[in-house]
């Protein structure tokens, strides 16, 4: 009980999924608590994250940790030793490599998520939607270039930046449908990297079925009057 771990989450959230993947990589047992985001939020969520009122929240021994990138670092520092998983640390040991990994994680959250949101929030055919499509292609090409010829963003081993980005692989299908482009043409290495990541149990058991993600994106489109 003193060490109880609970994750407040929402099934399709890439931010929540990265926490689930990190916990699985470390072999940490936890209780998953699905939250209602439309309508009234639970008292537990509002009490645990009174500033942003968002999931994910990691409750460790009753104490909340908010914001997924901060949660990942907390998980990495709290459970550094994981006997069966590799790597033992998600973040690299080298300070410069750590700084770079954090830079790209920030890029994913600022740029990729922004473009994704604009793809479903804006009405197809409008100039702003066309711009969102162009921006998305640029972001994907930039991530493709950063990956280069490496197996993983973490190098030979699946690491922090892989955990940060991999939940978005389940959205690639929705990007293609809503953006009208082929991921394999824009970023073939990123697509192959996504497939490699899915060979890991932690990822395979966490990522949402791409068709369900697309249905969810259509639901959001409808909700925001952009259908
Ligand atoms: N920067 C936050 C983003 C979290 C976030 O956007 N969560 C969404 C679900 S994907 C949420 O809780 N939305 C509810 C709301 O905005 O009211 C993180 O990395 O944890």
UniProtKB/TrEMBL annotation:
InterPro entries, A to Z: Glutathione-S-Trfase_C-like, Glutathione-S-Trfase_C_sf, Glutathione_S-Trfase, Glutathione_S-Trfase_N, GST_C_Tau, Omega/Tau-like, Thioredoxin-like_sf
Biological process (GO), any one: glutathione metabolic process
Domain of life: Eukaryota
Subcellular location field: Cytoplasm, Cytosol
All copies of domain GST N-terminal, residue ranges: 3-83
Main location: cytoplasm
Keywords linked to the UniProt accession: Cytoplasm, Transferase
Enzyme class: transferase
Gene Ontology MF term list: glutathione transferase activity
Domain GST C-terminal, first and last residues per copy: 94-216
Catalyses which reaction(s): RX + glutathione = an S-substituted glutathione + a halide anion + H(+)
GO cellular component annotations of the record: cytosol
Enzyme Commission designation: 2.5.1.18
Coiled-coil residue windows: none
Family label: Belongs to the GST superfamily.
Known function: Is involved in the conjugation of reduced glutathione to a wide number of exogenous and endogenous hydrophobic electrophiles.
Name the record gives this protein: Glutathione S-transferase
């Amino acid at each position: 009980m003193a060490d109880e771990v609970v994750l407040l989450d929402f099934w399709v959230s890439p931010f929540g999924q990265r926490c689930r993947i990190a916990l699985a990589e470390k072999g940490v047992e936890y209780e998953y608590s699905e939250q209602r985001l439309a309508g009234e939020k639970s008292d537990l969520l509002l009490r645990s994250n009174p500033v942003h009122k968002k999931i994910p929240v990691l409750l460790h021994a009753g104490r909340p940790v908010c914001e997924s990138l901060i949660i990942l670092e907390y998980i990495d520092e709290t459970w550094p030793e994981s006997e069966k998983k590799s790597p033992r640390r998600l973040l690299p040991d080298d300070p410069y490599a750590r700084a770079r990994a954090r830079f790209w994680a920030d890029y994913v959250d600022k740029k990729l998520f922004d473009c994704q949101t604009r793809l479903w929030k804006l009405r197809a055919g409008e100039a702003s939607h066309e711009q969102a499509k162009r921006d998305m292609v640029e972001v994907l090409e930039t991530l493709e270039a950063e990956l280069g010829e490496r197996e993983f963003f973490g190098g030979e081993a699946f690491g922090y930046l892989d955990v940060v980005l991999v939940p978005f692989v389940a959205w690639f299908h929705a990007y293609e449908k809503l953006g009208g482009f082929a991921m394999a043409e824009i970023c073939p290495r990123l697509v192959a990297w996504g497939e490699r990541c899915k060979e890991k149990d932690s990822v395979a058991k966490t990522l949402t079925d791409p068709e369900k993600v697309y249905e969810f994106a259509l639901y959001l489109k409808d909700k925001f009057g952009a259908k």
